[in-house]
Amino acid sequence: MLETVAHIDSHGLPLNRYVVWIDVPDDVWGARRVLKEEDLPGGWDAIPHGMASTQVGSDWYNANQEALLELPSAIVPEESIVLINAKHKDAKRLKATTGRRIDYNMVLRTLTET
């Protein structure tokens, strides 16, 4: 949710966000590519994103070697995000389940209005 909140603009809170669980087979998870902060080029964590992060993602996607890429969050670098390569053969093995709608509380609404 923090990744979503970080990208809120003057139009306010998004209303069409849902919690989604993704079941990843163990072998697909084990084969993921993992990039650490030291593996990334300078500027990878720029907000708004720039060419450095775009290039890393594009290179990984186009190489089509892994279904998943785990890398640090630009918002909270101590946490990870995982990208899915939809064109990788193992992507079809992932199973997504839609959960509940995300209800942003009034505290977040107040913060975005200032």
Automatic annotation (TrEMBL):
Boundaries of every RES domain copy: 1-97
InterPro entries: RES_dom
Superkingdom: Bacteria
Protein name, per record: RES domain-containing protein
Taxonomic path: Bacteria, Pseudomonadati, Pseudomonadota, Gammaproteobacteria, Lysobacterales
